[in-house]
Amino acid sequence: ESQGQYYEACPLYSRALKDTENARGRLHPYTRLITCKYACTLDALNRHDEAAELRAKYNLDQPPSAEPTA
Questions:
Q1: 61 FRET partner, CA 20 to 30 A, in 8, 43, 54, 55?
Q2: Considering only CA atoms, which of 48, 50, 49, 46 is closest in space to residue 17?
Q3: Is 69 left (phi over 0), alpha (psi -120 to 50) or beta?
């Protein structure tokens, strides 16, 4: 049953990530948080390659930027 919840969460995280990145930018802490949660959800669904690509795209293996956010 929990697998179903992960499947349901994927499109929601995808939409939230797009909206947040558009509104706040790639480096904003909220964008990074959603990206991390989305990647963890993909991992839970054994979609490890997609999760790794997402983490790489958003540099989640690096500490957050010190740039100010709006």
A1: 8
A2: 50
A3: beta
